[in-house]
Amino acid sequence: MGSEWKTKDLKDCATWYSGGTPRKGTAEYWGGDIPWISAKSLKDFFVSDSEDKVTEEGSRNGTKLVPKDTILFVVRGMSLKSEFRIGITTRPVTFNQDLKALVANDEILPHFLAYAIRGRTAEILDLVGEAGHGTGVLPTDRIQAVQIPCLPLKEQQRIIDVLRTLDDKIELNRRMNATLEGMAQALFKSWFVDFDPVIDNALAAGNPIPDELAPRAEVRKKALSMGTSQQGSVDHPTLSDPKSLFPAAFEFTEEMGWIPEGWETQPLYDIADFVNGAAYKGADFSDAEDALPVIKIAEVKAGITGQTKFTTINKGDKYRVVDGDILLSWSGNPDTSIDTFIWTDGPGYLNQHIFNVRLHDESERHFVYYQLKFLRSTFAEIARDKQTTGLGHFTAGDMKRLMVFRPTTSVLEQFNAAVSSIYSRAYENRIATKTLTKLRNTLLPKLISGGLQPTTSHDS
């Protein structure tokens, strides 16, 4: 029984490793095929890739190469103020100095150890201290003292089987949504960044192509001559003849240069109403049954967790969040927090530093959402230029200066028709993932503590 389970310090469950950063100025160390994991790239429980990669030489100079089934978790960073990032590698990787790596001892299965640590998330976050400039720090001696249950390998595997089934479904949904988002973004880029249908129409009509768009025109010429379409091209299986909705010429504007003829320009801030959240203080929080969660960036990214604060204070219905709302985080780590999200975790009150994007017209939902998603790198760049103490931000003023164009109504309607099913499927996957995540987070501490006995298909 769980009450009889013995425990031991986490420090005695694994071999511990520290990471590092190879010299950025040494070209021979970077650009290889070995992932280099940082707090920025440690987003998912199963760790397999990162934007930054090192060479074999880089893996031997300034960092540490660890094998498959190594547990990684963040011990320093702004994210520690609100979340504990942990994952287990599915391939050999390297990692930086803000993470610790654990290779499980023989008497404990790697995935069980990862789940056991993850099940102590609330306890671990209480151990986090603060370094200069507000950076969260998890002292090694404190987390090494966290207690891990000592179970027979068979019992460990039974617990893994239950939790891994849920995590595999969550991971499948994540991959499906990455594919769906990629499809919609490819079409958005083709129509509203590369202007493929306008270029195609201009080429067919013999109209001039602006010099800035000449390279893309050459790509389109080759694709059309070969009778093929490339990723991100105008062709889409649900559209009969979308090119007929686009003009066949470009016109020059002072605000944005060359844009499709007949389209308008406007500040990004005018595409919707961007309502900033309200400021909630500790005195506003409540444990009352009718209290609603205060939605901060941690909740936007991870949903409602044990760390979420609740309040009964409604500072205005405009701050109330419901499922399906588009939320734009404008403050935080430029690499991990500045982004656009769809809320799917029930009613709550929006905290400051996040915009609730209130649409002028529901029919513009898909265009507005995918435009904001496409601009993520632009937002991050602006925020990075203003970054202080690990945080960056962009403002309503920045959005008023950032110009975008508005296509004709017929093009917007056609884009809506093209991506509506993609958007809906992705939304349904988010809802399913939230349900699976809540179930896993409920079962995890109970299984690890012995409060719930796992049952698998191997049981009679």
From TrEMBL:
Pfam families: Methylase_S (PF01420)
InterPro entries: Restrct_endonuc_typeI_TRD, Restrct_endonuc_typeI_TRD_sf, Type-I_RS_S_subunit
Enzyme class: hydrolase
GO molecular function, one term: endonuclease activity
The entry's keywords: DNA-binding, Endonuclease, Hydrolase, Nuclease, Restriction system
Domain Type I restriction modification DNA specificity positions: 3-181, 260-402
Similarity-based family: Belongs to the type-I restriction system S methylase family.
Keyword 4Fe-4S: no
Superkingdom: Bacteria
Matches recorded under SUPFAM superfamilies: DNA methylase specificity domain
Protein name listed in UniProt: Restriction endonuclease subunit S
Enzyme Commission (EC) number: 3.1.21.-
